[in-house]
């Protein structure tokens, strides 16, 4: 499973599943910057970008950033940028991040163009997507170089049963090998893919794009980028929109536990909808259907369902396939069809859903390095290494909080992170510990009441933490909501981004 369950924004209005899109043609390589590579902070801030046309009215460029902002003379990395120029008169740039860690803002803007924001925003801003350090077309985090090794990590089965110490021991061996490969193939960058370093990149990009203040749209984990930016550079905050907010004060374990409860809630909403139609695999009440789903997950490991390519379906991959289809109501019919195929003994659609989530292509290659970045950034940002409880103890807690899907999703998410980060070869980064962003201009924080990946309570908490936070609530389903055709949300956010108008109260859409 691609372990991005708490982080990746999938914005339905763009019809673009960033975690698993397969594009028909390769993207152009961004151009290089002109002149020598900077060796000090002033030089990086003073660099000039060279924009070249790269299709459909878009322009591409490459910026340089130091590997280590505390030692800018030690070397530089590339940051790939793509810009959709304003369709009208530009007020400036709007930097955009779709989530992660590991999501590609470059892909988001390149393949969405003008529709990566509403028409009003596209008219008034140059929309700029970039690949954060370590991601995609920027200088990459590289771990395994053979996709078969990645397959083994994401889909491989174990000799020992899940929930046993034998499984934990096998998992630890796998993650030690993975961490060693990341260290060998990535080098110094591996310890500098943290959010504070990305926030410093964002401020440098603000300057080289010619903006006095940062205008920013961040989804899901991209909200954490925006939050850390506001804390580090409060005087440079322009108009920030944080949709699908991450609460920066919640521990990694608690965040994943809350998230699993959110997915259980979203799954129950799916079941209620499914049971009202004629094609539902489940029967009875929602509680009955939830028990049937739990039974299916309990028993799938013993079935030995084998995909056409030889991969064997287990409960962890089935959980991935389910969760992949809970990010938006528009995916619920695919989930119904997946269960129907599984009932007929065909695991193909389940693997298709899991592969989409894992950015795995039909030929077995991987479309992105988002998995590698997710683990690397989580280990340098997070606090797993300091957790005194065992992995098995924490799995039991998640199972109690999310008794339908939670335990099975942990097998390829929490358990992996807990084990990997305990064996990670670089230390945790130095990150802010409070997030008031005193002196910052108003910041919009958007929360959806039944968001499965970033619970609504996180948005409420973040808006309260930020000294200038303004909560915008949407009552509904799905992960993130701006630019998905909900006028109550879009109009408020557009008025803020375009005109600087801050709503007097939460519109409670």
Q: How would you describe this structure to a colleague?
A:
Helices cover 41% and strands 12% of the residues. The protein is of the alpha/beta class. A nine-stranded mixed β-sheet has the order 1-2-3-5-4-6-7-8-9, with helices on both faces. Strand 6, helix 7 and strand 7 (237-243) form a beta-alpha-beta unit. Helix 6 packs across helix 7 (221-232), helix 8 (252-275) runs parallel beside helix 14 (391-401) and helix 11 (332-343) runs antiparallel to helix 12 (348-357). The chain is globular and about 60 Å long.
Explain briefly what this protein structure is.
By secondary structure, the chain is of the alpha/beta class. 41% of the residues lie in helices and 12% in strands. Helix 7 links the parallel strand 6 and strand 7 (237-243).
Key terms for this structure?
globular; 9-stranded mixed beta sheet; 9 strands; 18 helices; alpha/beta; 12% strand; Rossmann fold; 509 residues
Report the helical percentage.
40-55%
Largest sheet: 9 strands, mixed
Q: Could you tell me the strand content as a percent range?
A: 5-15%
The helix-and-strand class reads alpha/beta
Mean pLDDT: 91
Cα radius of gyration in angstroms: 22 Å
CATH superfamily placement of the domain at 12-140 and 195-250 and 433-499? Alpha/Beta hydrolase fold, catalytic domain
Strand order, main sheet: write it out.
Answer: 1-2-3-5-4-6-7-8-9
Outline type: globular
